[in-house]
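My current task is to audit a protein record that another person submitted. Thanks in advance; the entry in question is below:
***
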Amino acid sequence: MKTISLQKIRWKLFLLGKFGIPMLGFARPKLLSIDEDEVRMMIKLRRRTKNHLNSMYFGALAVGADTAAGLHAFYLSESNGIKLSLAFKAVEGQFLKRAETDVIFVCKEGKIVADCLAESSRTGERINQDLMIEAFNLQDEVVATFKMTLSIKVK
């Protein structure tokens, strides 16, 4: 497994937002840290991500959860030199509290994602797996939780 720098992943995230998924470019998620076990990223609360109640719009929260889980799969595939097809099949969100500050998204499902990559490599089949993502405000309170079904196939 080769090490991919945080700067390289940030650059690829920027390019993905610029040319591949415009919603990422609009919300401008910032990658804080990434490793084999955990991804931490942030979306700032600003005019683009606010709703009429001055809290983070649920669409921006969904972008953060999607990006946190997707980056984990991307990082692990890049680290192992694997090309993959990635999509999300389902999402379930629980909005527990208004997000009235910047929001940090945490996905601690690296082991599960690595197991899915290994199984898809071995079988050649598409693998679906539920991942949990938590969203925290700057006071370290959980404002939302997401269960997303990651669907990956190693090419």
